[in-house]
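Before a colleague's protein record goes any further, I have to sign it off. What it holds is a sequence and that sequence's fold in token form. Would you go through it and say whether the fold makes sense for this chain? The record follows directly below this note.
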Amino acid sequence: MSRFTTPAILEMLGHYNWRVHEPFAFYLSDDNSDVIEVPAGFITDLATVPRIFLDFATARRQIRQSGN
């Protein structure tokens, strides 16, 4: 199950952008093998998924479907 292990502490920069104040991690699986680490200073609109994460998710799905 996906989960955060620490709170995401954000600062609102305007109507659409937020800055991460402290690094945090988001775990994609129960065994902690798939994790996304977000560094302090990262700016997000909280809606757009960065391309690198889409590529990662697609690759993991393909590996799981192939049985490897």
Notes: The CA atoms of residues 2 and 28 lie 4 Å apart. Residues 3-66 form one domain. The chain has one domain: 3-66. DSSP finds one helix and six strands in the chain.
